[in-house]
Amino acid sequence: MLVFAIIPYIIVEYIKQNEGNKFNVKELFLFVLKKPKLILGISLIPLGLFIHMLYLHLKIGDGLAFVHIQRVWGEGEGTIFEVVFKSLKSIQDYRFYHAIWAIWGFISVYHLFKAKRYDEAVLSLILLAIPLSVKIQSTPRYIIGSFFPVVSMCDMIEKKNKFEIGVFLIMAVIMECILYSDWIVSAPYLC
């Protein structure tokens, strides 16, 4: 999936180097071929997945066992938007809180696209889609860990007045406190 995050970066770099010229797919292809390290790097991204799939195939006979097991656990059914909307309906459950994190992630992706930071937006969207395609519980961890939504939110509050920044910071502290309490309750042995 992360291979797709490199494509907008390559296109943006091609456009920067060819300002004023028309976009040409053939020239873009030649631009990429002139960078053997880039081709090698793109080729190595899925290598770990393929090695893991080979191991699973040799060990248990199913190279996609990590995908097929999701149905047994009752996860991974529906699109990422269905997962978020289903979670928003359960207000009394932790999934509602995680759905708010997902909405925050979507807002930051929108802001990155609006700011024409396409490579960051695509990578952020991919990193948001990964936990939402399986289980919404991992969404806060992916959003905080991916760094791009955090940078996007900092860009957004930079243009606000002091009151709006204060409200945003209070909301962020509340969300973090809920996240920490959720972590401590679900893993009491860490305390």
Topology:
Layout: H1 3-17, H2 25-33, H3 36-44, H4 47-60, H5 65-72, H6 80-89, H7 94-114, H8 118-132, H9 139-146, H10 148-158, H11 162-186
Condensed summary:
It contains eleven helices and no strands.
What does this protein structure show overall?
There is one protein chain. The protein has 191 residues and is mostly helical. It has a domain of 115 residues. 76% of the residues lie in helices and 0% in strands. The protein is built from 11 helices and no strands. The mean pLDDT is 79.
Main attributes of the structure:
mainly alpha; 11 helices; 191 residues; single chain
The number of helices is: 11
Based on secondary structure, the structural category is mainly alpha
Radius of gyration (Å):
20 Å
Mean pLDDT: 79
Uncertain runs are none
**SSE order in H/E notation?**
HHHHHHHHHHH
